[in-house]
Design goal:
Blueprint (H helix, E strand, L loop, with lengths): L1 E6 L5 H18 L4 E10 L4 E9 L5 E7 L2 H24 L1
Parallel strand pairs: 1-2
Antiparallel strand pairs: 2-3, 3-4
Helix pairs in contact: 1-2
Length: 96
């Protein structure tokens, strides 16, 4: 699988590695992902606010998931839940 990461917020690599690990884990569970694009940017400084968008290339229409949060852990947790839900929907549509 191909990963494209656009880190405009200059966050540490541990969060990006976590996101890649989470996407690989979901890919093995819910089906083949062709590629994933992760866009991270800082949208406010006081207080620090982050926005992340993940585009998942699956057979059929691509899935685009986005979230905003002040805390990076909450941001990735929220994105993880949304990705799981969208991949479940996509795999159920494919099997129907």
């Amino acid at each position: 699988m191909k990963f494209i990461i656009r880190n405009q917020a200059k966050i540490s690599n541990k969060y990006l590695r976590f996101a890649k690990w989470k996407i690989r884990k979901l890919s093995s569970k819910y089906g083949k992902l062709i590629y994933s694009e992760i866009y991270v940017k800082q949208i406010a400084t006081k207080p620090t606010m982050y926005s992340a968008t993940v585009k998942l290339g699956v057979p059929g229409p691509d899935l685009v998931i986005s979230a905003k949060s002040k805390n990076l852990r909450e941001l990735w947790s929220d994105l993880s839940h949304k990705m799981k839900r969208q991949l479940q929907k996509a795999s159920s549509r494919k099997n129907s």
